[in-house]
Amino acid sequence: MTRRINEIALDDILPEVFAHEKTPRSDVWRTKLQLRRGEKYLVESASGGGKSSLAAFLTGCRRDYEGSIEFNGENIRSLGIADWQEIRRSHIAFLPQELGLFPELSAFDNIMLKARLMPSPDVAKAEEWMKRLSVDARRDYPAGKLSIGQQQRVALIRSLCQPFDFILLDEPVSHLDEANNRMAAAIVEEEAARQDAGIIVFSVGNPLLIANPVKLSL
Description:
By secondary structure, the chain is an alpha/beta fold. Helices cover about 30% and strands about 20% of the residues. The strands form two sheets. The chain has a five-stranded parallel β-sheet, sandwiched between helices. Strands 2-1-4-5 form a four-stranded antiparallel β-sheet, with helices on one face. Strand 7, helix 6 (about 180-195) and strand 8 form a beta-alpha-beta unit. Helix 3 packs parallel to helix 5. The chain is globular.
């Protein structure tokens, strides 16, 4: 996929695990929904409501859903491995709830794993973000020895070190105080604006404090 993803369309989707249950009242499940590049969305649910499942569907990590998901009108079930590799490298950035850091690597090396996949990694910008999020003093610490809040900030920075049309953030600030939450939100909004990208945040109660998102309930 060489052109930008301008719209993600969800049509009557539902996780298969929910198929034999009473469909919950939802702004997402069993509806028609368009998510547009350049917009901001906050997807909220109770624990077990399917927010991480939805994030996994949108990034091609899982296919166990009913209904259809389309990128620019193309059903994502038709996409192959090479397509998804390109999408994850250049079109959809993703911060999973589990973070996926390598514990033996330093905070900085974890960030650079993503940045170095780019033709011209912006090391200075990554270092600036580390300073703004107060993890620069832990630059050379193994990620496994950082606090969970520090790990979240490192993983957030890593997720931003690529081109994207949408960035998906699953519980990105669940262990951050309000000051760090607001700084993280400012950095995400700045970078999304620079790339004219959409932001999709998933949360069960402590959301990233982006300004004026469209709120969707699972």
